[in-house]
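Severity: low
Component: inverse-folding endpoint
Summary: output formatting inconsistent between runs
Steps to reproduce: submit the following C-alpha cells with default settings.
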C-alpha cells in the first residue's frame, strides 16, 4: 500500500526540523506512507504510484499515546469519592480495606468477557480524543489467574476498538488480603509465577510496581524489576506519588522507561532520571482528584532536560477521567506546562515512556499513526474540553473506524 497524505498542516513533533522543534505548523505538507510506515515527509513530493488523500488543510499530528492507564477493572469507587469529600484520606480508605482492594474484589469476580465489555467504552472515549495507542495495566487481580485474565482482557480491546494496545503487568500494585503481613511471600509469587507466566504467554510488554509506604518498598520493587528484566520485559514505576521513597532514582538506575506521578521527586531523583534517559510521566488527573498540593518538580525536570509525558492514569480510585486532552489542559493549568510540552507529553515522550520508539513523531521510518484535527493551532488541542475537534485517526496509514 502506497499512500500520500497531502494538504496537511503538519505538526510533526520531530526534532530534526530544528527551527520548528517539530511543533510549529508546516503548511502544505505531504506525508508518503508505504506499508504503514512513513517513507518521506516534505512539501513538494512526487505522487507517482501513490494513492493521494487530501487532508484539506487540517492540522495533522502524530496519533496521541496514553502511556499510563488502568483501563481494565470492574466496579466503581464513587462512594469513596464521597468519603474523601467527608474528610477521609486515600490512605485511610485503603487501610480499612477499601481503595485498590475494593476494585480487586470486584475485578476478581468479573469474567474476562465482562472486563472487556467494561473496558471498550473507556477506550472509545480515549480514541475520540485522538488517541491511537493506549498502555493498559493489570493490578486489580493480584492472583496469577486474575492478573492474566486482566492482561488478556486488555489485549482484546483492540479487537473491538481501532487502537494499538501495549500491556503492563502491575502484579505489585497492592498487597492482597491473603498475603497481609507477608509482603515478601507475595513478591515471591509475583517473581516466581506471575512474571514468568505473563512472559511465557506474551501477555505483557512491561512490568510496573507501586512503590509507596502503603504498597511496596524500593527493595521489593528492585526484586520485581530484576525478574522482569531477566524475562526481557520493560520496567516502569508508580513512584514518589505520596511520599519520597527514592523509588524513581532506583527504577531509573535499573533502566526504567518511565517513572510516573513523581510529585515528591527530589533533586537527586531528577538528576538520576536525566542520567538514564528515563521519562517523567505526569498524571495531573490523580493530583487533581486526590486534591494533592505537592507539585511535581517541573522546573528541575526542565533544567535537566528530562522528557515529560502526560497521561490519564485512568482508574476508578484516583483518576476517573477518560480524556487525554483534559489531562493536557490540567498539565498546563495545574503544573504550568506549555502547550508545546503537553503535546510532546502525549506524542514523542509518551512513545518513549512505553518504549515504542517508532511512534509519536511524523518522520521517515515512523509508523503512520495520525490524528487529524479541525483546529487552527496546536494550542487549541488542550484548550476546549468536551467538544473534541478530532476529524479522523489513521493507524499505519489506514483510516480508523470511530
Ligand atoms: O496510579 N497509585 C497507585 N495506583 C493507581 C491508583 C489505583 C487505585 O486507587 O485504584 C494510581 O494512582
Ligand atoms: Fe496509575
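Observed output (run 2 of 3):
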Amino acid at each position: 500500500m502506497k499512500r500520500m497524505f497531502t494538504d496537511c498542516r503538519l505538526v510533526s513533533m520531530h526534532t530534526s526540523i530544528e527551527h520548528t522543534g517539530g511543533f510549529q505548523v508546516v503548511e502544505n505538507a505531504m506525508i508518503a506512507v508505504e506499508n504503514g510506515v512513513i517513507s518521506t515527509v516534505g512539501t513538494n513530493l512526487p505522487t507517482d504510484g501513490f494513492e493521494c488523500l487530501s487532508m484539506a488543510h487540517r492540522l495533522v499530528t502524530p496519533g496521541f499515546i496514553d502511556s499510563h492507564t488502568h483501563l481494565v477493572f470492574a466496579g466503581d469507587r464513587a462512594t469513596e469519592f464521597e468519603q474523601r469529600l467527608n474528610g477521609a484520606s486515600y490512605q485511610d480508605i485503603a487501610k480499612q480495606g477499601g481503595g485498590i482492594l475494593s476494585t480487586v474484589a470486584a475485578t476478581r469476580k468479573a469474567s474476562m468477557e465482562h472486563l472487556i465489555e467494561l473496558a471498550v467504552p473507556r477506550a472509545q472515549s480515549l480514541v475520540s480524543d485522538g488517541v491511537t495507542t493506549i498502555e493498559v495495566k493489570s493490578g486489580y487481580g493480584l492472583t496469577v489467574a486474575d492478573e492474566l485474565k486482566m492482561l488478556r482482557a486488555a489485549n482484546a480491546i483492540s479487537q473491538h476498538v481501532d487502537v494499538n494496545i501495549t500491556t503492563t503487568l502491575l502484579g505489585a500494585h497492592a498487597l492482597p488480603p491473603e498475603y497481609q503481613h507477608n509482603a515478601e511471600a507475595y513478591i515471591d509469587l509475583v517473581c516466581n509465577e506471575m512474571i514468568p507466566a505473563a512472559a511465557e504467554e506474551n501477555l505483557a510488554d512491561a512490568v510496573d510496581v507501586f512503590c509507596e509506604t502503603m504498597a511496596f518498598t524500593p527493595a521489593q520493587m528492585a526484586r520485581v524489576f530484576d525478574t522482569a528484566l531477566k524475562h526481557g520485559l520493560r520496567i516502569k514505576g508508580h513512584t514518589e506519588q505520596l511520599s519520597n521513597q527514592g523509588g524513581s532514582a532506583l527504577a531509573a538506575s535499573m533502566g526504567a522507561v518511565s517513572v510516573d506521578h513523581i510529585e515528591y521527586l527530589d533533586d537527586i531523583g531528577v538528576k538520576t532520571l536525566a542520567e538514564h534517559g528515563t521519562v517523567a510521566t505526569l498524571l495531573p488527573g490523580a493530583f487533581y482528584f486526590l486534591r494533592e498540593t505537592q507539585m511535581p518538580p517541573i522546573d528541575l525536570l526542565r533544567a535537566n532536560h528530562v522528557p515529560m509525558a502526560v497521561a490519564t492514569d485512568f482508574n476508578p480510585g484516583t483518576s476517573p477521567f477518560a480524556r487525554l486532552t483534559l489531562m493536557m489542559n490540567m498539565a498546563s493549568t495545574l503544573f504550568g506546562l506549555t502547550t508545546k510540552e503537553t503535546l510532546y507529553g502525549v506524542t514523542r515522550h509518551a512513545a518513549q515512556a512505553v518504549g515504542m520508539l517508532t511512534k509519536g513523531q511524523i518522520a521517515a521510518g515512523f509508523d503512520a499513526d495520525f490524528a487529524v484535527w479541525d483546529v487552527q493551532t496546536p494550542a487549541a488541542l488542550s484548550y476546549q474540553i468536551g467538544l473534541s475537534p478530532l476529524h479522523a485517526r489513521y493507524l499505519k496509514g489506514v483510516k480508523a473506524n470511530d
